[in-house]
Amino acid sequence: LLSHFSSVGFWGLVNNAGISTFGETGWLPMETYEKFADVNLLGSIRTTLAFLPLLRKYKGRIVFMSSIIAYFTLGNGIYSMTKAAIEKFCDALRLEMKKFGVQVCIIQPGNYAPSTKIQPPVSAEEIWSELSEEEKAVYNKEYVQERANFFNSILSEGSTNGSEVVDAMVDALTSPAPKARYMVAKLKEKALVFVCALFPTVVMDSVLSYALSK
Prior knowledge:
Helix 5 (124-130) crosses helix 7 (141-156). It contains 10 helices and 4 strands. It has a 4-stranded parallel β-sheet with strand order 1-2-3-4, sandwiched between helices. The chain has a single domain (12-186), classed as Rossmann fold. By secondary structure, the protein is an alpha/beta fold.
């Protein structure tokens, strides 16, 4: 594969692979954490390392799919974890690649669940059936149902216009002066990111706790 691209040139790499799930920290087994790290984080790193020689040679572009969920979490901390890690990997890579003329861009979509189908509606019954006995002793079915309803309501509010994210990816690949980050999100989502990034953690926690209480 690399020998083929060496003869025809190689311009851009888009790391788009990702999976999502719902669940509080103790609800998910270690195997799930390992799977998410392998797909969402290490998968992008493996692909990047494989094509790095060609990207340096042709002064290409590398585009990573992150998410505004890298800044906060509302029930899918495992997904947030992998996206926050990808952001830091990109920050290091972007600085290191400057001397080679390679540009690194991050796409940060808001909630596009209805258009991407990355996260299907969650089932409280299924979540409860998979909990360990230790977790069942701490939580109850009513709580799990409330959390599932809350998360499903968020999913249903997502945008169906996935072309907005695709447009950002295309710009990152083709623009003479691409942005380091493309945040493609609704105004209220951008406002939440602003609060999380600039306000003290206690403020962020209060805002998110209030949202979760509703």
